[in-house]
Amino acid sequence: MPELRPYQLEAVKDIWHKKRVLVADDMSLGKTAEAIAAKTLIENRQGYDRNTLVVCPASVAEHWENQVKTWYKKKEYSKVAKVQTTTFNADLKEAEHADFTIVGYPTLSYLGAQAPQIDKLRRIVFQYGIIDEAHNAKNPASIRSLAVKKLFDSMDYLAILSGTPIPN
């Protein structure tokens, strides 16, 4: 397994201690690895697994899956579920038993317009959330942002990742 750099370890410690953190490192500095390593630290320190929800651009969902395989070493095999609009109900069943559940912003926008669908996703009770490329949900009045708020508001731990500055 690759090793985290010192600045990445600081981000992991921040997530562990502060619980809800914005990680705003520059692009390609390993925010994904930091968020995954934080999950491992949290689980090891607290002695139990945490269902984890990742919201990210659809174009990087596969990247997230690959990064989980690289950085999440708590288990020999980690289960990743992807929730999509076309296979939503079947995907939910997979998500109930997954270490990581990945939802793309377009799917979240669609689900957000369908309030009962978001409620079904919330019933899984995710305890750690990762919002990647958070600037994609910066408009507080948008369906996408309202869905993000509803999903992540009550989670114990939250890592908000952005390599793009958010104005104001």
Number of strands: 6
Overall 3D form: globular
Major sheet, described briefly?
6 strands, parallel
Structural class: alpha/beta
Could you describe the 3D structure shown?
- The protein is of the alpha/beta class and 168 residues long.
- The chain is 45% helix and 16% strand.
- It is built from 7 helices and 6 strands.
- It has a 6-stranded parallel β-sheet.
- Strand 3, helix 4 and strand 4 form a beta-alpha-beta unit.
Question: What is the topology?
Answer:
Layout: H1 6-18, E1 20-23, H2 31-46, E2 52-56, H3 61-71, E3 80-83, H4 88-95, E4 100-104, H5 105-113, H6 115-122, E5 128-131, H7 143-152, E6 157-161
Parallel strand pairs: 1-6, 2-4, 2-5, 3-4, 5-6
Helix pairs in contact: 1-2, 2-3, 5-6, 5-7
Keywords:
single chain, 168 residues, alpha/beta, six-stranded parallel β-sheet, globular
Task: Give a short synopsis of this structure.
The chain is of the alpha/beta class and 168 residues long. The chain has helices at 6-18, 31-46, 61-71, 88-95, 105-113, 115-122, 143-152; strands spanning 20-23, 52-56, 80-83, 100-104, 128-131, 157-161. The mean pLDDT is 92.
